[in-house]
Design brief:
Elements: H1 3-38, H2 46-76, H3 83-109, H4 117-164
Helix pairs in contact: 1-2, 2-3, 3-4
Length: 165
């Protein structure tokens, strides 16, 4: 992979991580204060909403760190090794947890009159989309496993060929 592409992606990851820390440190507490002081039905839900928002940001941070580690492996030429599986597995688990958090958000917001049923349906749909992304990454992991197996097979054949020659 081109080193400029890796550098650009790392820049995006750093900006995303800094933005996510800002959201966790400033935006979520401000939103929590607004929810607590509003006095509507959402007041009783301030803690689950804040916890879900915080956990969703953590999911994004885990994915960003794992992508960073995979980019490091790409730069070193070691991405087609079994060591890369743990980062891909972490991404799959994080995305699946994110899907569960979207479903939990829909479950928390469903009862009552404050949130329109269409909005709850949209949140549930977003959870389904995120779960689909986890499945896509799972398929990509299987392709990575096949590539690692083929690479090991090719190395073994090359070693045998070198012995014959």
């Amino acid at each position: 992979m081109n080193r400029w592409v890796i550098g650009a992606l790392r820049t995006v990851l750093v900006l995303a991580l800094l933005g996510s820390v800002f959201v966790q440190a400033v935006m979520i507490p401000l939103a929590a204060a607004d929810l607590r002081g509003e006095g509507g039905e959402l007041t009783r839900l301030w803690f689950p909403l804040v916890a879900i928002a915080f956990c969703l940001v953590v999911v994004l941070q885990v994915c960003a760190v794992c992508v960073w580690r995979l980019l490091t492996m790409v730069r070193r030429g070691t991405v087609f090794t079994p060591a890369s599986f743990r980062f891909v597995d972490a991404i799959i688990v994080a995305i699946a947890v994110g899907a569960g958090l979207f479903f939990a958000l829909g479950f928390v917001l469903a009862p009552g009159e404050e949130v329109a049923p269409g909005m709850v349906l949209l949140i549930g749909g977003a959870g389904g989309v995120v779960a689909g992304i986890a499945l896509i990454v799972l398929v990509m992991r299987m392709l990575l496993a096949q590539a690692v197996a083929r690479d090991a097979e090719a190395r073994a054949m090359q070693a045998e060929l070198d012995e014959v020659i």
